[in-house]
């Protein structure tokens, strides 16, 4: 079910979607969006690529075992709880840096948390899709 | 004035949207429905969004509206193509008044060649 | 394509200079940048950019015209009770070669009401098109060949 | 007092040095025996010794011990017979294997039994009570490869365990009335207890416990079956000690619960019935041990009856009888074991003429048998005499009871003749093994006990005379003095004794005639409540299987139906009871597009339910989800809408990847079941809709909402309040949420990639 | 609209329950998903509806005042949706696996784990 | 200091994450599992000690004041539950090391156990209704995956029922939580405890509490909501059955206790009547179900239900003594029941089957195992002086005190039937000779010493705990009484969480 | 009532009507592909609706949702097509 039209389009859309997913992640604190939706859109990009080009191509594109993404996402999310523990504050208390940027808004541990969510969602979704797709091949 | 122009664009857009809705309801087979409708709605949405841009007249809004338009114009034909193709190979029948089907002929020939 | 990048950079610089992040400012920046680049042709070279921009504009205008006409035609057919359609699937021999060319052409064709790219043959030489108004297959092919495909390839090549 | 501590430590001691040899083992009970006798002077002086180790003081449960006449007597019996049995078992158990286990169990038992009789705290007593039950269970099932053995053990455990539970209930009720678990604390509150409305229940429950333990009719059946145990166990637990725990309890409680018609009459009747019936049941037994077991039952009945009579004389008779029985029955059981050991059979029809081969055993058996038959000058004679005397003393019922007692005792004489005397006389038959005299270790114990019986009979005053007064005082409130003598002269009582012997001879003679007729025929089921037990067990199992088949029938639909109906029924019963009015219907201010969205959702749901195609259903589901998303947009929840759309689309992808391998969307259920399910579903749906309406009809004053609005930007550094809640205010929710996702991914992966061959492990 | 949403919620619950009472496994999946939707919509509705004023702190202001949508139920639903998604993904694959392994989609054929012991 | 409250949630999570990173190396995962389980036990012990000495601990997660953020709170009940589950977690990991096959180990078995522990601990520690839902889901999804890991047909069949019914109950939970928020405007348990008595729609509140009762009743396997349990618990590897049996249903019971002492404390009458009836039926139908079984683990599964009945009975009586009894019953049951499942695994290794009719001869060959079985079995049947006796004793005493003679009578009868079932196992699996000698090689004999050590140490440890709980009942009971007093004093829960509220 | 208000109100109504019409096609089918096309068109209508609704409510927050809808609708359509394609091949 390979279509050259879809395959070509998917290659260009991939970048577009990935960029948009990051955009959703970073401004989620101020506008609709956030790590979860961002992660889903990123996963959607890969899903599109997979449908257009096949599972092998998609896995090659990702390069990394989705489980490591999951683990990394969880680790990021958990590690955002650590600074406050180390500082003797209540666990998960947000710690913010004074510098802010136009795109991100303020930078702080909650953003780290959201980034963890992003990676985790990406990893989870891809793991599920890839497992299912590989299951098909068997 | 600008807002009024926006309003008119919106109305125009919704007109095309309605057309496509009626089209998809009225057309005889899948392919004609797709031919008739996907673009009409794409155009319609484009117009509505353009109206939105005019109404707000703000770069952030424009960026969003334009990205939607661009994205739609990029993806709508691909989507139409992929469905049409899948439907065709899935055996969705053509309208009985369809004049010619060169794809079917070629497929038949190709099939004979390869066998 | 470097010139396009320059042009956009100039537009952004313009926007920043004016300190007004609005559409008109940015559009103005684009136009001014284009003019500046055109003026500085001897220094920067790259005639293709200036040749193509008008072509792109022309193509866009052509396409929008086609889009509107076709849309209205189909709309008329939809809104009136009688059906004027004579649909059919036509094999169209492609001149477009690269993935990009084929994809763009097929998509633009699909975008135009009344036509729908159904499939590309495995040897990538034929595009199968479903069309609503096929009076004659050869006429249809000819019209497409000289119209959309030619103009598109002009822009791309 | 140190004796208690040693007894408590004993089983642990034991496990470390598994006493293979009776000689080592016997030192333990002997030591205890002598340490108890050392208290004799103080007990005799009327002292009551107490010792308390705090255990669970907040529940009033402590290891408090009480040494008075009653417990003293029992303690002596337990340790003395224990010594004999240990010594005997050291040799006897050699051919059983796992002898060390046996000693662990029996040591555990002895300790528990001592604990039982010494406890002042009834809850602690109950603990020991149950422990004796468990060790009895282990000992009955000692030959565990025999199915009969296992069955009997289970039967004994269930019957006594069930009684134990009744006892527990009774004890707790008593506690509820009196506020104390100490026997010594209960005595002064007797009045309170007897007048309580709970008194009958408590009394019946306590009696149930005692009756089952002491195998009173109709719970007697487990005891003969318990003869599957090795002989030392039968001798020790099932004649001399454990079965007397119930009797002990009755005697102990006599103080507290006694004096009422309920108590006295019940004991009297149950005891008398047990006494006679079990003796009758012995009639067609041919197994040595079973014969002895039925005689034990009869004696237990007699003892119960004597408490029921409750006069001072009766209580004294009770004690004499108790001691006498322990001595002779222990001996006889051990002799039976010796015979079995030597001759390889316990069938009275086969055994005979063993006297020549085993003269010492015969002598021992003779002594014990005569005591059991009540022949002068053995202690059994005194016991019987006193018994008759106490019955004659009664005002009512005396005549019937005398008849019953004479018949029962006559039957006992017959049993003795069959089991204790006949095997040694007559001609020797062909036996499974050549009989030989028992080794000294197996002889010493029973012989000592038998001789002790003789001595106690000859010198009753020395052995028991002084004791009896204060013994009786530990069961009764006040005492008279009564001198026991071997010889009271020719009187009514003596006549009865002779009558008894005569009866016994007659029964014996008749038995030879009757036996063929009785053989193979069942005595009426009424007399054999073990069939009740079997029926109850089978009935319980049938009910169990039935209810399991009904409830746990494997059909997921039924499970869900039950759950949903339970929820609805409960909720409706609340609503029906209290809501008179329908919830206030909110004003219907809707716009056209809202109606469109809602009707799309409703139609999609309908399509989904009725659809016969999977993909159509997926699409309908997608539409439902997307429309929900639109509702979220309409009502100010853009983040929700975003997420819903994203999830729905992913759901579609998922379905698409999964679906074409999934089965058809065929419908299996019948129209009727569909209608029924639809009705259930509708009821639940209406209920939930009503819940929504009820809820929104009230005011919601959410301080949280206002707080978030104020704190989101300054403290949470974000304008998107929903997102700030997710990653900051309630970040730990989100942490859990992403964990769920991670685990789900693992699950999907594992399910698709890992398939073990073969069945489940 | 609250009334309509109450009706929708009720219908979703009813349809969900009806579907999980089917013998066909695939229908049960759909039922479970509908139940998820139903719960989400219920929370949304009982959290009170507010039209057109999302809970965003406006630019140039430190806090949100006046009438606005309650963000907490939204956050709860978000969490519930995501959790529901994970669980449903698992469930779908579980059902597929079951079908591939057991070769049936009829739940009434799946009673071995509850079979009464053979006499 | 208060932050130790988070450790029982964070430790398992962190170790699970680490194991995900080492997904290719089972050896490393095993080591991490052991380490983290010990750490968890230490943390739980520390927490318990801290709560005993210093009273209730609370943490406002993220530093947000009480009703606004999420509060983690450990009163005595929570701390004890966490400690008990940490113990079970540790023993299960050890037992798993000996019994779980290589394939399952490779497919994330150990991380899943840790995720499960995280969910369970989270449920015990949270002070927020919705957060409880989240932890329930963490626990559920982990249990789903553990249940199907391996994908054998019976596992799948069992899982379908387990999953479907639990998802239904989750949906009800969500609805109930939503309605509760819609009524009270808060989700914090302490805040709810403060507000609920003053809400205008008290009847609606009762209905909501019924919904909670249903959802927790399903998790706790109360009559007539228990069907998923006997359908599934005997299907996974025995280590998984064991930890499920020990902990999962108890979380449901915990939630019931928490909700119906803290949040809905003031409207006990109707609920208590329902709970009372449910408890009697639960006890009876569970034990009867068990009586009908001849599969070791299915029999035990039905007993779980039966014993849940006792706990619910304690809750329904709603007196300090009854609650204390219920609490002790939970702890006793967690330990004894898990142990019995472990032993069922040992018996299976020796005899090659869980079918009691086909098993046999264990006692003859391995008397020590027999004794190890008798400890939890007799404890379960309520034989003194083991822990179960006290559990039963206290509950029965409370039952009589409350004048509930009928249900108390049932409780006693059920005790007898429990004894019957346990002795059936004893007779069939231990005493009876093995009916047919095993065909294939005995998997028990081939075990190495190290493995056998891992195999037995959990059983020995839990058996020891059972005995100790019985023998040294006084301090434990004092603790239970204190916990019960805490539970029944709503203000004692509200104040530490919310601070002083007017 | 200004022109913009009028046109927005009209637009909302017309889009609602179109959605209904398309939904009918969705229900009728007959082929799966027909339904997919209808679904695609429905999501396009949703985007238009969102745009108009943002004008109506004078709130820009919703436009972002529009982008997501566009992306996801495309993805969903492709997924369905993928499914149809698979069905043919196997
Ligand atoms: Na988010
Ligand atoms: Na959902």
Q: Descriptors for this entry?
A:
heteroheptamer; D: 761 residues; mainly alpha; 5 domains; two-stranded antiparallel sheet; 72% helix; disordered N terminus; G: 90 residues; Helix Hairpins; 3 helices; 89% helix; binds sodium ion
Describe the protein.
Chain G: Pfam families: MrpF_PhaF (PF04066). Chain G: It comes from Chlorobium limicola. The complex is a heteroheptamer. Helix content of chain B is 84%, strand content 0%. Chain B is mainly α. Chain B has helices spanning 2-26, 30-56, 59-90, 102-114. Chain B has one domain (2-114). Chain C has two domains: 3-44; 49-156, no CATH class. Chain C is 66% helix and 11% strand. Chain C has six helices and three strands. In chain C, a hairpin with a 5-residue loop joins β2 (115-120) and β3 (126-131). The relative contact order of chain C is 0.11. In chain D, β1 (49-56) and β2 (61-67) form a beta hairpin. Helices cover 72% and strands 2% of the residues of chain D. Chain D has five domains: 1-258, no CATH class; 275-519, no CATH class; 521-550; 555-700, no CATH class; 701-761, no CATH class. Chain D is mostly helical and 761 residues long. The relative contact order of chain D is 0.06. Chain F has one domain. The mean pLDDT of chain F is 90. Chains in contact: A-B, A-C, A-D, A-E, A-F, A-G, B-C, B-G, D-E, D-F, D-G, E-F, E-G. Bound molecules: sodium ion (2 copies). One sodium ion (NA) binds at residues 36-37, 81, 84 of chain E. Residues 36-37, 81, 84 of chain E line the site of one sodium ion.
Explain briefly what this protein structure is:
The structure holds 7 protein chains of 7 kinds. Chain B has 115 residues and is mostly helical. Chain B is built from 4 helices and no strands.
Question: What is the topological layout?
Answer:
The complex is a heteroheptamer.
Chain B: H1 2-26, H2 30-56, H3 59-90, H4 102-114
Chain D: H1 2-16, H2 22-37, H3 40-44, E1 49-56, E2 61-67, H4 69-92, H5 99-118, H6 122-140, H7 147-178, H8 183-186, H9 190-195, H10 199-213, H11 222-225, H12 231-240, H13 244-257, H14 261-281, H15 288-309, H16 312-343, H17 359-373, H18 379-393, H19 398-421, H20 440-458, H21 460-475, H22 492-518, H23 530-551, H24 556-578, H25 592-610, H26 614-634, H27 638-659, H28 671-696, H29 703-711, H30 721-729, H31 731-753
Antiparallel strand pairs in D: 1-2
Helix pairs in contact in D: 1-2, 1-5, 2-4, 4-5, 4-12, 4-16, 4-20, 5-6, 6-7, 7-10, 10-13, 12-15, 12-16, 13-15, 14-15, 14-19, 15-16, 15-19, 16-17, 16-18, 16-20, 16-21, 17-19, 17-20, 18-19, 18-20, 18-22, 19-22, 20-21, 24-28, 25-26, 26-27, 30-31
Chain F: H1 7-21, H2 26-54, E1 57-61, E2 70-74, H3 76-99, H4 102-106, H5 109-125, H6 129-148, H7 153-184, H8 189-195, H9 202-220, H10 228-232, H11 238-263, H12 268-291, H13 296-317, H14 320-351, H15 362-365, H16 367-381, H17 387-401, H18 405-431, H19 449-471, H20 473-488, H21 490-498
Antiparallel strand pairs in F: 1-2
One sodium ion (NA) binds near residues 34, 35 and 36 of chain A.
GO molecular function, one term (chain C): monoatomic cation transmembrane transporter activity
Family (chain C): Belongs to the CPA3 antiporters (TC 2.A.63) subunit E family.
Membrane topology (chain C): Multi-pass membrane protein
């Amino acid at each position: 079910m390979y279509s050259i039209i879809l395959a070509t389009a998917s290659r260009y859309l991939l970048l577009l979607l990935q960029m948009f997913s990051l955009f959703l992640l970073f401004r989620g604190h101020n506008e609709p969006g956030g790590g979860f939706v961002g992660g889903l859109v990123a996963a959607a990009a890969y899903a599109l690529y997979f449908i257009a080009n096949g599972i092998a191509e998609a896995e090659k594109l990702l390069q990394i075992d989705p489980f490591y993404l999951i683990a990394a996402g969880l680790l990021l999310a958990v590690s955002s709880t650590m600074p406050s523990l180390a500082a003797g504050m209540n666990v998960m208390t947000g710690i913010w840096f004074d510098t802010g940027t136009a795109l991100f808004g303020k930078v702080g541990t909650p953003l780290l948390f959201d980034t963890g969510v992003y990676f985790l969602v990406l990893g989870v979704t891809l793991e599920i899709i890839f497992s299912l797709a590989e299951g098909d091949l068997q | 004035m600008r807002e009024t122009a926006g309003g008119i664009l919106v109305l125009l857009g919704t007109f095309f949207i309605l057309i496509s809705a009626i089209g998809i309801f009225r057309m005889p087979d899948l392919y004609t429905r797709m031919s008739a409708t996907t673009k009409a709605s794409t155009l319609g949405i484009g117009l509505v969004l353009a109206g939105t841009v005019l109404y707000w007249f703000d770069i952030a809004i424009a960026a969003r509206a334009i990205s939607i338009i661009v994205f739609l114009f990029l993806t709508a034909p691909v989507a139409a193509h992929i469905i049409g193709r899948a439907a065709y190979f899935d055996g969705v029948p053509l309208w009985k008044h369809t004049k010619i089907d060169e794809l079917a002929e070629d497929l038949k020939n190709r099939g004979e060649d390869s066998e | 394509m470097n010139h396009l990048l320059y042009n956009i950079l100039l537009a952004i610089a313009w926007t920043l200079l004016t300190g007004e992040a609005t559409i008109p400012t940015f559009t103005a920046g684009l136009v001014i940048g284009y003019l500046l680049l055109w003026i500085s042709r001897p220094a920067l070279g790259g005639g293709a950019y200036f040749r193509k921009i008008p072509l792109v504009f022309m193509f866009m205008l052509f396409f929008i015209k086609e889009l509107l006409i076709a849309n209205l035609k189909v709309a008329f057919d939809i809104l009136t009770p009688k059906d004027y359609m004579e649909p059919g699937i036509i094999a169209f021999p492609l001149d477009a070669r690269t993935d990009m060319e084929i994809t763009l052409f097929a998509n633009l064709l699909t975008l135009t009401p009344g036509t729908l790219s159904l499939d590309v043959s495995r040897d990538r030489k034929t595009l199968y098109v479903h069309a609503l108004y096929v009076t004659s297959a050869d006429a249809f092919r000819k019209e497409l060949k000289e119209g959309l495909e030619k103009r598109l390839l002009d822009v791309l090549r | 007092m140190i004796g208690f501590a040693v007894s408590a430590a004993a089983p642990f001691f034991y496990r470390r040095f598994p006493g293979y040899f009776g000689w080592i083992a016997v030192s333990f009970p002997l030591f205890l025996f002598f340490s108890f006798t050392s208290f004799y002077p103080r007990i005799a002086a009327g002292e009551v010794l107490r010792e308390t180790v705090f255990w669970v003081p907040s529940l009033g449960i402590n290891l408090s011990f009480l040494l008075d006449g009653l417990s003293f007597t029992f303690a002596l019996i337990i340790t003395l017979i224990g010594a004999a049995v240990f010594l005997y078992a050291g040799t006897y158990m050699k051919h059983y294997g796992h002898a060390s286990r046996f000693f662990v169990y029996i040591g555990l038992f002895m300790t528990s039994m001592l604990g039982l009789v010494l406890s002042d705290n009834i809850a602690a007593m109950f603990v020991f009570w149950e422990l004796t039950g468990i060790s009895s269970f282990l000992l009955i099932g000692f030959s565990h490869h025999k199915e009969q053995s296992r069955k009997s053990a289970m039967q004994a455990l269930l019957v006594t365990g069930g009684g134990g539970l009744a006892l527990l209930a009774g004890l707790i009720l008593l506690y509820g009335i009196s506020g104390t678990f100490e026997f010594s604390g209960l005595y002064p509150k007797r009045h309170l207890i007897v007048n309580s409305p709970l008194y009958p229940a408590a009394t019946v429950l306590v009696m149930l416990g005692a009756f089952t333990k002491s195998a009173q009719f109709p719970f007697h059946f487990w005891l003969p079956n318990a003869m599957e145990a090795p002989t030392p166990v039968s001798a020790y637990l099932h004649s001399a000690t454990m079965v007397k725990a119930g009797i002990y309890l009755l005697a102990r409680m006599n103080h507290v619960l006694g004096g009422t018609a309920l108590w006295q009459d019940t004991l009297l009747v149950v005891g008398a019935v047990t006494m006679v019936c079990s003796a009758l049941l012995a009639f067609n037994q041919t197994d040595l041990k079973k014969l002895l077991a039925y005689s034990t039952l009869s004696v237990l009945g007699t003892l119960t009856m004597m408490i029921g009579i409750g006069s001072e004389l009766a209580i004294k008779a009770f004690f004499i009888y108790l001691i006498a029985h322990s001595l002779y029955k222990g001996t006889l059981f051990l002799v039976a074991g010796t015979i079995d050991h030597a001759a390889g059979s316990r069938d009275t029809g086969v055994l005979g003429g063993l006297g020549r081969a085993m003269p010492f055993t015969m002598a021992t058996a003779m002594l014990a048998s005569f005591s059991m038959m009540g022949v002068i000058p053995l202690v059994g004679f005194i016991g019987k005499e006193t018994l008759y005397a106490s019955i004659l003393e009664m005002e009512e019922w005396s005549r019937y009871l005398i008849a019953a007692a004479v018949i029962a005792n006559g039957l006992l004489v017959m049993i003795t003749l069959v089991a204790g005397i006949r095997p040694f006389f007559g001609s020797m038959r062909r036996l499974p093994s050549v009989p030989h005299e028992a080794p000294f270790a197996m002889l010493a114990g029973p012989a000592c006990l038998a001789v002790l019986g003789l001595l106690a009979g000859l010198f009753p005053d020395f052995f028991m005379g002084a004791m009896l007064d204060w013994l009786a005082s530990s069961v009764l409130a006040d005492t008279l003095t009564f001198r026991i003598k071997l010889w009271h002269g020719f009187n009514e009582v003596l006549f009865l004794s002779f009558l008894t012997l005569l009866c016994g001879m007659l029964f014996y003679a008749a038995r030879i005639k009757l036996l063929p007729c009785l053989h193979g025929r069942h005595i009426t089921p009424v007399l054999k409540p073990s069939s009740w037990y079997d029926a109850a067990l089978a009935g319980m199992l049938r009910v169990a299987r039935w209810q399991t088949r009904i409830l746990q029938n494997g059909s997921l639909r039924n499970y869900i139906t039950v759950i949903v109906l339970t929820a609805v029924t409960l909720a409706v019963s609340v609503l029906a009871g209290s809501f008179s009015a329908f919830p206030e219907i909110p004003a219907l201010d809707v716009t056209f597009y809202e109606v469109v969205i809602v009707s799309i959702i409703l139609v999609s749901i309908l399509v989904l339910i009725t659809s016969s195609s999977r993909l159509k259903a997926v699409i309908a589901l997608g539409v439902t989800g997307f429309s929900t998303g639109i509702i979220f947009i309409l009502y100010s929840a853009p983040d929700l809408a975003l997420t819903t759309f994203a999830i729905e689309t992913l759901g579609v992808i998922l379905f698409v990847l999964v679906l074409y391998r999934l089965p058809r969307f065929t419908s299996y259920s019948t129209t009727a079941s569909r209608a029924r399910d639809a009705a259930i579903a509708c009821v639940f749906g209406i209920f939930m809709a009503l819940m929504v309406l009820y809820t929104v009809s009230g005011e919601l004053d959410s301080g949280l909402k206002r707080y978030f609005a104020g704190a989101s930007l300054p403290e949470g550094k974000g304008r998107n309040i929903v997102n700030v809640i997710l990653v900051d205010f309630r970040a730990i929710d989100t942490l859990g949420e992403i964990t769920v996702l991670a685990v789900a991914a693992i699950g999907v992966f594992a399910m698709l990639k890992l398939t073990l061959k073969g069945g489940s492990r | 609209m609250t009334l309509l949403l109450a009706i929708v919620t009720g219908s979703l619950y009813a349809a969900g329950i009806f579907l999980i009472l089917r013998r066909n496994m695939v229908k049960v999946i759909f039922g479970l998903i509908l139940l998820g939707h139903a719960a989400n919509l219920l929370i949304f509705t009982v959290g009170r509806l507010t039209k057109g004023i999302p809970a965003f702190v406006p630019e140039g202001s430190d806090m949100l005042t006046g009438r606005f949508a309650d963000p907490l139920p939204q956050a709860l639903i978000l969490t519930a949706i995501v959790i529901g998604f994970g669980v449903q993904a698992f469930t779908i694959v579980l059902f597929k696996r079951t079908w591939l392994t057991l070769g049936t989609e009829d739940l009434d054929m799946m009673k071995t784990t509850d079979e009464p012991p053979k006499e | 200091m208060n932050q130790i409250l988070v450790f029982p949630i964070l430790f398992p999570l962190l170790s699970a994450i680490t194991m995900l990173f080492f997904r290719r190396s089972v050896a490393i995962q095993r080591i991490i599992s052991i380490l983290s389980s010990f750490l968890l036990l230490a943390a739980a012990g520390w927490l318990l000690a801290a709560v005993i000495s210093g009273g209730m601990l609370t943490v406002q997660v993220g530093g947000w004041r009480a009703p606004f953020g999420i509060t983690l709170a450990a009163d005595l009940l929570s701390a004890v539950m966490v400690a008990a589950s940490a113990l079970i977690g540790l023993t299960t990991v050890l037992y798993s090391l000996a019994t779980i096959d290589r394939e399952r180990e490779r497919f994330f078995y150990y991380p899943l156990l840790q995720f499960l522990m995280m969910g369970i601990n989270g449920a015990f520690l949270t002070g927020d209704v919705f957060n409880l839902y989240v932890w329930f889901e963490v626990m559920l999804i982990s249990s789903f995956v553990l249940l199907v890991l391996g994908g054998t047909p019976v596992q799948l069949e069992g899982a379908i029922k387990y999953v479907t019914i639990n998802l239904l109950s989750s949906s009800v939970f969500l609805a109930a939580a939503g309605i509760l928020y819609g009524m009270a405007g808060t989700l914090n348990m302490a805040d709810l405890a403060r507000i609920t008595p003053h809400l205008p729609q008290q009847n609606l509140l009762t209905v909501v509490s019924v919904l909670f009762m249903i959802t927790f009743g399903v998790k706790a396997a109360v009559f007539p909501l228990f069907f998923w349990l006997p359908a599934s618990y005997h299907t996974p590897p025995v280590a998984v059955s064991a930890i499920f049996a020990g902990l999962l249903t108890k979380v449901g019971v915990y939630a019931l206790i928490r909700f119906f002492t803290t949040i809905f404390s003031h409207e006990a009458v109707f609920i208590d009547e329902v709970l009372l009836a449910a408890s009697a039926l639960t006890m009876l139908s569970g034990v009867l179900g068990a009586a009908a079984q001849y599969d070791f683990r299915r029999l035990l599964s039905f007993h779980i239900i039966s014993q849940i009945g006792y706990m619910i009975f304690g809750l329904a009586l709603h007196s300090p003594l009854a609650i204390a009894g219920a609490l002790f019953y939970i702890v006793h049951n967690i330990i004894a029941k898990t142990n019995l499942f472990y032993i069922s695994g040992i018996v299976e290794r020796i005899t090659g089957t869980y079918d009691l009719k086909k098993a046999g001869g264990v006692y003859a060959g391995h008397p020590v195992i027999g004794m190890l079985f008798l400890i939890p079995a007799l404890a379960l049947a309520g034989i003194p002086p083991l822990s179960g006796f006290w559990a039963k004793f206290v509950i029965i005493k409370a039952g009589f005190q409350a004048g509930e003679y009928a249900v108390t009578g049932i409780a006693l009868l059920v005790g007898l039937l429990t004894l019957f079932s346990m002795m059936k196992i004893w007779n069939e699996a231990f005493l009876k000779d093995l009916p047919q000698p095993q065909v294939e090689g005995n998997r028990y004999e081939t075990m190495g010493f190290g493995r056998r050590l891992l195999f037995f140490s959990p059983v020995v440890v839990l058996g020891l705990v059972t005995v100790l709980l019985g023998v040294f009942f006084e301090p434990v009971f004092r603790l239970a009484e204190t916990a019960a007093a805490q539970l029944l004093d709503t203000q004692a829960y509200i104040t530490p969480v919310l601070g002083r509220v007017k | 009532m200004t022109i913009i208000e009028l046109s927005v109100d009209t637009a909302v109504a017309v889009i609602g009507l179109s959605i209904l019409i398309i939904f009918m096609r969705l229900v009728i089918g007959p082929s799966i592909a027909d339904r997919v096309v209808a679904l695609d068109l429905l999501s396009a209508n949703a985007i238009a609706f969102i745009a108009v609704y943002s004008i109506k409510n004078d709130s820009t927050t919703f436009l972002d949702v529009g982008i997501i809808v566009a992306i996801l609708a495309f993805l969903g359509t492709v997924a369905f097509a993928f499914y149809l394609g698979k069905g043919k091949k196997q």
